[in-house]
Amino acid sequence: MSQQTVDIEVIRFEPEAFAWDELPRPAGDTAPPGEETVVFRSTDGTMSCGFWRRVPERGSLQPPFDEIMQLLDGEVRIHEGDRTLALGPGDILSAPNGADAIWESTTPIFKFWAVFQGDVSDTAISAVRPAEGLAWQPASIPPDDGYEPGREVVAFERGPFSCGLWERDQQDRDFERPFDEVAVILEGEADFTTPDGRTLHAGPRDVVITPKGSRGHWKSLRPVRKFWTIYES
Q1: Which domains does the chain have, with CATH numbers?
Q2: Please, are residues 69 and 111 in contact by the beta-carbon 8 Å criterion?
Q3: Which of 19, 203, 231, 233 is most exposed by smallest CB count within 10 Å?
């Protein structure tokens, strides 16, 4: 019996074509409701990813799950106790299960989110802000294609779930995923060739979904930086 092929998918960043779902508003919230679209959900339902957008608002940030947000457009202030985090495009916000803060967006927000149904543990909110410099580490996958290795920053990690940034100037190699990975291309371009010979192109803000068991070939056309979410189901 031949092994079943697990498909790679590239979702082009075309918001007008997304199937947006309107989200319920808390009591007393009179601003237009937020909208989201889910692009991936793990087979066990523990991890999911998607896009979210809303007009400026102020409200509580008390997620009943771990939520990691890659801000694509807009500016937001997070008030947690005596401290305030000011975040903008390119920044990553981690709001763990049990966090208790105030979300105050001063402009319309467009973000990519990743959610993990984890238990309550460390509830402190944290942020990764590339403009302030990043503590890059060598990429966890060693190079095998003759090019300089990539590097990465882990923004959040809990059990089988993790998120972060990765970048590499050039990549031209086969891959096979032992986990689910969903990535947003922040900079650069790449082609992904599937086992059946199809070529999928991904550029800025496109989503690349490589589920557990998928395999193919990655060829960079320009240096790539991506926001990645991994779930080791």
Answers
A1: 15-23+32-130 (2.60.120.10), 134-231 (2.60.120.10)
A2: yes
A3: 19
